Amino acid sequence: MFLRGVWRIAWRALVIAVVLMLGYLAVTAVQVWLTSRRSDPRRAQAEVVMGAAQYNGVPSPDLAARLAEAQFVFERRLVPLIVVTGYKEPGDHYTEAEASEMWLTAHGVPSDAIVEVGGSDSWSNLSDAAGALRARGIHEVLIVTDGFHEDRCLAIATDLGLRAWPVPAAHSPISGWSVVPYFAKETLGVALGRLVGYSRLHDLGAATVRGDRVVSQFAHSGVV
């Protein structure tokens, strides 16, 4: 009887925990979706374009859509400075930031109005951007990225001491049902970031990547 009572209590606790977790994820998903529908272009000190894939210096359609939005904002004279972000994958000749800078200058944005920073993920993109902006006394920015990505980017920017507003790419090629897995990923990222902190989450991800690289190196050496 005693063990049966313990198992009943444990089962109820597990059910409650699962319900609470699902409720938390559902609320977070709604918040991510609502933020994705916000566009607040306004006068600010700069805009930050989140990096995305590039191919030998040519922005991917997704990155090109973000850059077109940033160009539009710049041409409306809402910001005097564009910060482009992103590092490069092994074997690439250009970083995402370099590809972005080349696209913008080819479309009429003066090179002295563009700042390039690195970063291999959203947190490091914005961390590098925040450092460059603080050096210029800038703390009010617009974040240009896909709508589903805005909520997490705004939260990270706030953690880094920036005051930020969303400007999602109006013509992103990621649309319709294809956007669902991106929303799922962002919901999980925001949910975890709120629980453990976005900086900590970045550190955990970086440690995992380093561990994978060490295992890969041992595998290629024949050790494992």
Give the topology.
Blueprint: H1 2-36, E1 46-49, E2 54-55, E3 58-59, H2 61-75, E4 82-84, H3 96-106, E5 114-116, H4 122-135, E6 140-145, H5 147-159, E7 163-168, H6 180-196, H7 198-221
Parallel strand pairs: 1-4, 1-6, 4-5, 6-7
Antiparallel strand pairs: 2-3
Helix pairs in contact: 1-5, 1-6, 4-5, 5-6, 6-7
| Tally of DSSP β-strands | 7
Q: Roughly how many Å is the radius of gyration?
A: 21 Å
Indicate the structural class. Answer: alpha/beta
Strand order of the largest sheet: 5-4-1-6-7
Largest sheet: 5 strands, parallel
CATH topology of the domain at 39-178: Rossmann fold
Helix fraction, binned, reads: 55-70%
Question: Class of the domain at 39-178 in CATH?
Answer: Alpha Beta
CATH superfamily of the domain at 39-178: HUPs
Q: Low-confidence parts, pLDDT < 50 over ≥5 residues?
A: 208-224
Number of helices: 7
H-E order: HEEEHEHEHEHEHH
What characteristic shape results from the CA principal axes? elongated
Question: Can you give the mean pLDDT?
Answer: 90
Q: What percentage of the residues does DSSP assign to strands (E)?
A: 5-15%
Distance between the termini: 50 Å
**In CATH terms, what is the architecture of the domain at 39-178?**
3-Layer(aba) Sandwich
